[in-house]
TrEMBL record:
Classification via InterPro entries: CAXX_Prtase_1, Peptidase_M48, Peptidase_M48_N
Cofactor(s) essential for the protein: Zn(2+)
Upper taxonomic lineage: Bacteria, Pseudomonadati, Pseudomonadota, Betaproteobacteria, Burkholderiales
Membrane-spanning parts: 80-98, 118-139, 165-187, 194-217, 306-328, 348-368
An example molecular function term from Gene Ontology annotations: metal ion binding
Residues that, per the record, bind Zn(2+): 296, 300, 376
Peptidase M48 domain location: 228-428
Name recorded for this polypeptide: M48 family peptidase
Alphabetic keyword roster: Hydrolase, Membrane, Metal-binding, Metalloprotease, Protease, Transmembrane, Transmembrane helix, Zinc
Length: 440
């Protein structure tokens, strides 16, 4: 493939992304007429719920309008295909970058001007990030903008969405370039053991991002303010105090400018804790639901899920880096010369490294999902015991069906769910309620 062909493909991808953007508002009008809301439940309805968990779960599920279920099933199942398509597009982008030798040409040009290896490497890594993003732009725009509007889940018009997108991209570019540069230094200096140090560095990097995220990154996208409603705040702080979470305030943020999704988190690592909930949760749910959701989030903190996550992912990353090291060495022997990659520490091979890593991540998807899902089950159990809001928990999970298929098969859940299926979570709440039964 010639360099000219590469630029032609890149231009085509940008044009395709622009067409998708142009079509987005049209589809949104179409779909918003079809949105079916879940009718709110009354106290009388809750009082009449049967004690049997399966029957009570069925009563909750029966409140889902058929159109709403069809829509969220289609949205979520489409996501399965998008994972496959994303994987294939990533591999194709890597292949285009390698066979056009576009990075080889850039490397040779850079070396004519400067022999500072760290600088040349950083520029090559940044160029790889930029060029691969251009090649995947149509899919990105379709998935993150067009499709979210198509399903009535997004509120942002293209301008603000694109500005968030660019900001995200700029951050990824700076942080990613620094991190990958470091990995290449390790690859050059520690030829035999770089894969272990790569995993160690990745875990340290993830911990660092978790540490600075709440304070320095999240406020770039949303405004965080202290929650002023004491009626909402005090019960949350009471749950935090009761479980030893070092938080003295609750913050709210304006997620509604991006989407309708209800969400909250208790983030923090190394002794810090930030209790935060979004304005959609405040607007769209009742106090019992808020308490159930915040109980769940406090659970992640109290149960040290951040550390479990780092440890488990550390192990999975060591295995991943080992796979990448072996397969990279094999691929270099075979195609290294054709693609102009001098040795393993040459950043020109980055598209190949990225492709191999994505193979590992793709194959391991169910393992990553199951790891996270197990923690979510624990947080649900913690949340319901702390908040004691069984119906609040069930009601919140019923609302989450707008972007998560409510009742998948077990095999589907194993492969694709990083949270338990909504129906199972409602059942969990009703089971707890049955064991703590008070005559209504
Ligand atoms: Zn959770």
């Amino acid at each position: 493939m010639q360099k000219k062909t590469f630029w032609l493909i890149a231009l085509l991808m940008l044009a395709l992304a622009a067409i998708i953007v142009y079509m987005a508002p049209l589809s949104q009008n179409e779909i918003s007429r079809k949105v079916a809301e879940i009718a709110p439940a009354t106290d009388a309805w809750r009082a009449a719920l049967p004690r049997d968990p399966a029957a009570a779960t069925a009563a909750y599920m029966a409140r889902l309008p058929a159109a709403a279920t069809a829509r969220s099933d289609a949205y979520f199942e489409g996501g399965y295909w998008l994972q496959l398509i994303g994987f294939v597009v990533g591999i194709a982008a890597s292949w285009v970058l390698l066979s056009s030798r576009i990075l080889v040409a850039l490397r040779d040009k850079l070396e004519q001007h400067s022999q500072r290896r760290w600088l040349n490497n950083a520029i090559l890594i940044a160029a790889f990030t930029l060029l691969s993003s251009i090649l995947s732009a149509p899919l990105d725009v379709y998935q993150r903008y067009f499709r979210e509007h198509l399903y009535g889940l997004a509120n942002q018009s293209f301008g603000p969405w694109f500005s968030d997108f660019l900001l995200n991209f700029a951050l990824a570019m700076v942080v990613g370039t620094l991190f990958i540069s470091l990995i290449f230094v390790v690859m050059r200096r520690l030829v035999q053991t770089w894969w272990i140090w790569g995993a160690v560095l990745s875990v340290a990097f993830m911990a660092f991002m978790m540490l600075i995220g709440p304070t320095y990154i999240d406020p770039l996208f949303n405004t965080y303010t202290a929650l002023s409603d004491e009626k909402v705040k005090q019960p949350i702080l009471s749950m935090a105090r009761a479980n030893g979470v070092p938080a003295d305030n609750v913050y709210q943020f304006d997620a509604s400018k991006q989407s309708n999704r209800i969400s909250a988190n208790v983030s923090g690592i190394f002794g810090s804790a930030a209790v935060r909930l979004n304005d959609n949760l405040l607007k769209r749910t009742s106090q019992p639901e808020i308490e159930a959701v915040m109980g769940h989030e406090l659970g992640h903190y109290v149960l040290n899920h951040v550390y479990h996550f780092l440890l488990t992912f550390g192990v999975l990353l060591v295995v991943g880096f080992a796979f990448v090291k072996t397969s990279y060495a094999w691929a270099l022997r075979r195609w290294g010369q054709r693609w102009g990659i001098r040795d393993q520490a040459d950043p020109v091979g980055l598209p190949l490294l990225a492709a191999l890593f994505s193979v590992y991540l793709f194959v391991m998807t169910p393992v990553f999902n199951t790891t996270i899902r197990s923690s979510e089950v624990e947080a649900d159990a913690f949340g319901i015991n702390t908040s004691q809001q069984a119906d609040g928990m069930a009601e919140a999970h019923l609302k989450l069906t707008e972007y998560r298929k409510a009742n998948p098969s077990d095999i589907e859940e194993f492969f694709f769910y990083d949270h338990p299926a909504p129906k199972k979570r409602i059942y969990m709440a009703m089971r707890w309620k049955a064991e703590h039964w008070q005559a209504p």
